[in-house]
Specification:
By secondary structure, the protein is α+β, with helices and mostly antiparallel strands. The protein folds into 3 domains: 89 residues, DNA Primase, Chain A, CATH 3.90.580; 103 residues, no CATH class; 120 residues, 3-Layer(aba) Sandwich (Dna Topoisomerase Vi A Subunit, Chain: A, domain 2), CATH 3.40.1360. The N and C termini lie far apart (82 Å). Strand 6 and strand 7 form a beta hairpin. The chain contains 11 helices and 15 strands. The radius of gyration is 22 Å and the shape is globular. Strands 5, 6, 7, 8, 9 and 10 form a 6-stranded antiparallel beta sheet that branches. Strands 11-13-12-14-15 form a 5-stranded mixed beta sheet, with helices on both faces. Strands 1-2-3-4 form a 4-stranded antiparallel beta sheet. Bound molecules: zinc ion. The site of zinc ion (ZN) has 8 residues, from strand 2.
């Protein structure tokens, strides 16, 4: 039987493999030293330190200073000395019926359904207004926004579901929620972040903050649009505090792992990374901030093409939203 290698088949494999490439490459025999995200010899063209695996877009991405950028398919072809059709078959076997996590489309809703769900939630929410539940939640953190970002909305009553015993969702309660759009640099909305709130605090649910569809892969909440300057932080509250303190355009990456993978828009010349101080834990906040700084300076070619700074709060366990809130308290005491 002739093997079909049409666009839709390739597209399907690409979609299923997205965000899982490191695991795929490893399982197909790519050596650990290649996947380390450190400079080393290029599997395609040799040398000693010209190559780095980055997985920047979740496509098994790499960059070689000599032969340029590429993705998981190209890397596999070089390592296994096989043609595209052959590595496509291998990757297909991995993501299709292999022992890895089931493909998205088996149980999870289709991208089209997710897109409609996101639109429905967003349409059911309203821009932030003084005194609405989301605004009260932010205000309780000293975050009084004169012009609330258009990428944030308040949903009056959003169901909170948990997987039940039979893995069907079970409604735990309904609370107001702060919704945030998660976008790629080109503006495409990839997901929504939800913070369930109640009476100026997080709602009493197991995980009051959740991303609607996982795998946001370097996308972010664009709170205030980037100019040639941009500030970034992990949390939405932290990013808003940074904006109030500095007046700068700011984005929230939502998680340390995602901060590290952030996609920067074209034209940004100065980036300030406002890291969380996780010195009381695993230093994850600092590590991802410096990993982002390092990656971007490398990609820019020289340190002068992009001015990157990393700011870390002095106190272990604090983020900049904590610092802002403490200062807001002090200001209120002085004014009293
Ligand atoms: Zn190369």
């Amino acid at each position: 039987m002739a093997e079909r290698m049409d666009e839709s088949r390739i597209e399907r494999v690409k979609q299923r493999a997205l965000g899982r490439w490191t695991e795929i490459l490893r399982s197909l025999g790519v050596e650990e030293r290649i996947l380390q995200r450190r400079n080393g010899p290029c599997p395609l063209c040799g040398g000693t330190d010209r190559f780095q695996y980055t997985d920047k877009f979740g496509q098994g991405n790499y960059y070689c200073r000599h032969c340029g950028p590429g993705g998981g398919f190209k890397l596999l072809q070089a390592v296994l000395h096989e043609d595209f059709a052959s590595v496509l078959r291998r990757v297909e076997a991995c993501v299709g019926t292999g022992g890895m996590a089931p493909p998205r489309d088996a149980a999870a809703p289709s991208p089209e359904r997710m897109r409609r769900l996101m639109q429905r939630l967003w349409d059911g929410a309203r821009p932030l207004q003084p005194g609405d539940p989301a605004d009260r939640y932010l205000r309780a953190r000293g975050l009084e926004l004169a012009s609330p970002p258009a990428t944030l909305r308040c949903h009056p009553a959003l169901g909170y579901y948990e997987p039940g015993h039979d893995s069907r969702p079970r409604l735990l309660g309904t609370y107001p929620a702060l919704l945030a759009r998660i976008q790629r640099p080109d503006g495409q909305v990839v997901s929504l972040h939800r913070t369930w709130v109640l009476d100026g605090a997080k709602a009493p649910v197991p995980e009051p903050r959740k991303v609607l569809c996982p795998g946001i892969q370097g996308a972010a909440v664009h709170l205030y649009p980037a100019t040639d300057e941009l500030a970034v932080a992990e949390g939405i509250e932290t990013a808003l505090a940074v904006h109030l303190a500095t007046g700068r355009p700011v984005w929230a990456a939502l998680a340390a792992g995602n901060l590290e993978r952030l996609w920067l828009p074209q034209g940004v010349r100065r980036l300030d990374i406002w890291a969380d101080n996780d010195a009381d834990g695993g230093f994850e906040g600092q590590a991802s901030a410096y990993a982002l700084a390092r990656r971007l300076v490398r990609e820019a070619g020289t340190a002068t093409a992009l001015d990157v700074q990393v700011m870390v709060p002095r106190t272990p366990g604090q983020d900049w939203a904590d610092v802002w809130q403490a200062q807001a308290r002090e200001r209120a005491l002085k004014a009293a």
